[in-house]
Amino acid sequence: MAKSAKKLSLSKARAKKRPATKAESAKRKAPKRRAASPYDAATLKQLSTDVARWRKTTLAKSLEKMPTRKAAFLNDSGIPLPDVFTAADRRGERLEDLGLPGEFPFTRGPQPTMYRSRLWTMRQFAGFGGPADTNRRFKYLISQGMTGLSTAFDMPALMGYDADHPMSRGEVGKEGVAISTLKDFEILFDGIRLDQVTTSMTINASAIVALCMYIAVAEKQGVPMHLLGGTIQNDMLKEFIAQKEWIVGPRPAVRIVTDMVEFCARHMPKWNPVSISGYHIREAGATAVQELAFTIADGIGYVEEGVKRGMNVDDFAPRLSFFWDVHNDFFEEVAKFRAARRMWAKIMRDRFGAKDPRAMMLRTHAQTAGVSLTAQQPYNNVARVALQAFAAVLGGTQSLHTNSLDETYALPTEEAVTIALRTQQIIAHESGADRVVDPLAGSYYVEHLTDEMERRAFDYLRRIDEMGGIIRAVEEGFPQKEIGESAYRFQREVEQGERLIVGVNAFKSASGASNIELLKIDERVAQEQVDRLQAVKRERDPAAVTACLSKVEAACRDEQQNLMPPVLEAVKAYATLGEISDVFRKVWGQYREGGIF
Amino acid sequence: MADRKLRILVAKPGLDGHDRGAKIIARALRDAGMEVIYTGLHQTPEMIVSAAVQEDVDAIGMSIMSGAHMTLFPAVLELLKGQKADDIKVFGGGIIPDDDIPRLKAQGVSEIFTPGSSTQDIVKWIQEHIPSRA
Q1: Pick from A174, A244, A504: which is nearest to B17 by CB?
Q2: Beta pairing partners, B59
Q3: Would the CB atoms of A244 and B22 count as touching at under 8 Å?
């Protein structure tokens, strides 16, 4: 301890003599101090005595008359919860684990001012039908005060199939916007200046094609790629763990991701090339602790791959962003955001030797839990979404999507998505959540949960390291099995009535589902997509397409080459998403998962 | 032969990868004493019907979240007919709007379970409605 104090004074002395380098300012901002407790020993001792007395007298007397409703209280991750926390439970608390906003370890938030300077980005995920349908929804949402675009793609696009592929039967434009060629991207962003908005694209296995199409559209608008701001999800590890949309297996998939990380670090300084996502892991049934652990493990996996290529962590890690789910257990969710920031900061500094604070700072998007919505009494979902969104804001998210009440049935109608957006606006402008940074800090309960989640998640990380890292663990199905167990346990608790879900296994209404209006995707969309695809194929230069695709193939076979430049050339020649994905399949083989349950 | 266990193929057709429901159902049916074969993800109707015939199952349970149910259920029923295997019952679940349920039943789907159905409801329905073909 004395040694680190000395180091601090040294760096201070040096800073006086000459302007500080970036690394030195990072060190100064994150001083290593003596572990200091905010509570003095005598007060805590007295408090412990008082609590013991209270248990024997006041509490015991009350329990005689009114026993607790349950023998034990656990939170949703199975963390045991006592009846009350006091300062005495925070005896070991270290001030440096909390820090201050905008400083290591960022427990209290990535920015010093948080929402006092800038509210979180209200980013509603949208995409359905053909690109013109989604373009209209984008323009509507912008007119309603949405501050960032977020694109949902249809299943064929996500799995690397064109609209006319047999695997695309019945799926074109159903769960997101249908995209096969650059032509579709031109329509999707028609009339939206790409240097005026930031865009998030939720696409993974075929992310490289989507990013290249976005760059190509911007170029046509006269916007160079270094001005483009946004995020592409591009988190393949969580696909194998949870969402299960893939083209090729884990190792080549991670190679493509790393190519994109490398390319963006050089050419797209405002772009987040990976959004390391807990959302899908949680939706597949993980607990909050598992979501935290497996997501951070995925992040470690991507950083390791970048480092293996010889990249400096400070050059690419500042652009890695995260994406959390926000579920119903309010306090646990707030704690999860805080624990995640602290874990990532420690890992980046201590494991990877990052020097730039931005490389240690976890920035995140969040989405309310789709899996928590109920088909029964769907208007209750508005209340669930509001509570979850409030937790995300108190947890300090940078951007948020709120789900619509009708999403257990279909993609949201315009009315439903407006209520979801208004929920965020009410939190921002009416609840007071924007006024004080990290408002739940210092709550004995929230701080306890933050510590406990971090401890449990680090336990998982140790197990994953022992297996040889996350890629290995995913190949062995470890996270998948852990999540499957949690999902089954949750379902059993619901069916045995140990866990109540309003409107589902308690407080049921006779009528069941409400008659809510649903968005229907017209079957004409598929035909229009196929027609446009065929028109593009007739008009393009086939020799140029063939030449571009063989360059993509050559780059696939040569680990020394980055795939971004040849894929960008290919999309500009109007090679289709399916054709480029077919090259990946040809080189690496179509990935399949066995039917284990 | 009368006490042959019911054999159920749990199938995940189409492109969507949301297999939480399918896996929970598969486990619940197995825990209820049935023999369960799970196809894994991203199956075409052809792959599902071929697995059903090869495995000699009594019923196929399909889970669809992607909105492609009006295409995929009829495709499986049609292929079963073509293979003269339409004594294999087809049921399903997932995100299926109420309006579509009578249309699917009219085409030959035996039952549709919507979100919130308990695994016990499904087990009970299978025990009451799916006769062993053996």
Answers
A1: A244
A2: B8, B89
A3: no
Asked if A366 contacts A325 with a C-beta cutoff of 8 angstroms, the reply is yes
Collect all residues of chain A within an 8 Å Cβ-Cβ radius of residue B20. Answer: 283-285, 371, 487
Q: Phi then psi for B50, rounded to 5 degrees?
A: -65, -40
Asked whether the beta carbons of residue A487 and residue B97 sit closer than 8 angstroms, the reply is no
CB B59 within 8 A of CB B30: no
Residues of A in contact with B14 (CB under 8 A): 155, 170-171
Name the 3-class secondary structure at B64: strand
State the DSSP string of A196-229.
Answer: TSEEEEE--TTHHHHHHHHHHHHHHHT--GGG-E
Question: Where are chain A's structural domains?
Answer: 2-97, 99-433+440-495
CATH class of A99-433+440-495: alpha beta
What is the per-residue pLDDT across A299-348, written as a single tens digit (0 to 9) for each? 999 999 999 999 999 999 999 999 999 999 999 999 999 999 999 999 99
Quote the minimal CA–CA distance from A130 to chain B in Å: 15
CA–CA gap between residue A319 and residue A229 (Å, rounded)? 11
Chain B partners within 8 Å of A596 (Cβ): 38, 40
Token pair, residue B105, equals 């039943």
Q: Verify whether the Cβ–Cβ distance B119 to A593 is below 8 Å.
A: no
Gap between the Cα atoms of A173 and A179, Å rounded: 8
Show which residues on chain B lie within 8 Å of chain A, measured between beta carbons: 10, 14-20, 22-24, 26-28, 36-42, 44, 66-72, 75, 95, 97-98, 114-116, 118-120
- Residue in chain B nearest A239 by alpha carbon: B17
Are the Cβ atoms of B42 and A169 closer than 8 angstroms?
A: no
DSSP E strands, A371-494: 399-401
Residue A514 pLDDT grade (very low, low, confident, very high; cuts 50, 70, 90): low
What mean pLDDT is predicted for residues A360-385?
96
B19/A158 Cβ within 8 A: no
Please report, in tens digits, the pLDDT of each residue of chain B (134 residues total).
Answer: 456 899 999 999 989 888 889 999 999 999 999 999 999 999 999 999 999 999 999 999 999 988 889 999 999 999 999 999 999 999 999 988 888 999 999 999 999 998 878 999 999 999 999 998 86
Cα A125 from chain centre: 13
pLDDT category of residue A410 using cuts at 50, 70 and 90: confident
* Residues whose CB falls within 8 Å of the CB of residue B102, separated by 6 or more in sequence, listed in order: none
Does the interface ipTM go beyond 0.90? Answer: no
Contact A272, A399 (CB under 8 A): no
Domains identified in chain B and CATH numbers:
7-121 (3.40.50.280)
Q: What is the pLDDT of residue A35?
A: 55
Cα dihedral A65, A67, A69, A70, rounded to 10, equals: 180
Strands A399-401 and A121-122: parallel
Rounded-to-integer distance, Cα A90 and Cα A105, Å: 19
Give the span between the Cα atoms of A375 and A420, in whole angstroms: 17
Q: What band does A34 get if pLDDT is binned at 50, 70 and 90?
A: low
Q: What is the largest CA-CA distance in chain A?
A: 87
A298 neighbors A240 (Cβ within 8 angstroms): no
